[in-house]
Amino acid sequence: MSNNNLIKGSLQTIILKLLEENERMYGYEITQRVKELTEGEIKITEGALYPALHKLEAEGLLSTEIQQVDNRVRKYYSLTKDGQKEVTSKMSELQGFVENLQRILTPDLKPGFNI
Amino acid sequence: MSNNNLIKGSLQTIILKLLEENERMYGYEITQRVKELTEGEIKITEGALYPALHKLEAEGLLSTEIQQVDNRVRKYYSLTKDGQKEVTSKMSELQGFVENLQRILTPDLKPGFNI
DNA sequence: AAACCATACCTCAGATTCTTATGTATGTAA
DNA sequence: TTACATACATAAGAATCTGAGGTATGGTTT
């Protein structure tokens, strides 16, 4: 991740959610997508991403498929059945956490961490 | 802390923000306040809290004042000048991060991680 | 009286997750 | 040929947590 060490553990959720939307993605593509979506503000480092992908695969949440594209090897990741269930779980967990964070940090405004 | 390992990194911000609102607090009080504000969903463990407090003090963001209350020693923490500046910084950092998280995770709805 | 829980501080081993650096390999642009 | 982009990977070290343990006081339960 970029400069901030905030909310460690959200990388897994990011990966799973992107794969829910995109069917299949490869590692480098994920880093670029996140950079693009956040206008360069969040940069996922390879040292964080690849171990995370490997772990999710080892847990049976992702499956892989290696493919040759322009003399380059790409390792595509997709959600397994378990992975699809886990997205929902991880997302509501994160949502709940942000909700609680907002309760602690903004005692004045009740609804929403609005932007 | 509760079940989720999401909080890493946001604990400092929580401490600083609570002290911005409350002038001075002691460790145990902070754990109770957070538990109270989140209806028991986030429990700050002592193993996380005390080292965090000591670190913030060592960085000059907090000052301490020991006080005897009912035969019990309390260590009150307050924001220093530097600490007061840091709250603003840490809060906008966290705000920005949540904003970016929302961009990644909810591509459909543009405004707000609403609750 | 003994056991237990609440208050209040603390430390430390181990786990997890990250950063930073390094390595391999191909292709393109300056 | 130097540099950058693409594409994978590992590994040392830092940072932050969990969970267990320790000390001490005082109230409540059994």
From TrEMBL, chains A, B:
SUPFAM superfamilies documented for this protein: Winged helix' DNA-binding domain
Organism superkingdom: Bacteria
Record domain Transcription regulator PadR N-terminal: where: 15-87
Coiled-coil annotated spans: none
Any one GO molecular-function label of the UniProt entry: DNA binding
Keywords of the record: DNA-binding
PANTHER family, per database record: PADR-FAMILY TRANSCRIPTIONAL REGULATOR (PTHR33169), TRANSCRIPTIONAL REGULATOR RV3488 (PTHR33169:SF14)
Protein name per the record: DNA-binding PadR family transcriptional regulator
Originating organism: Algoriphagus chordae
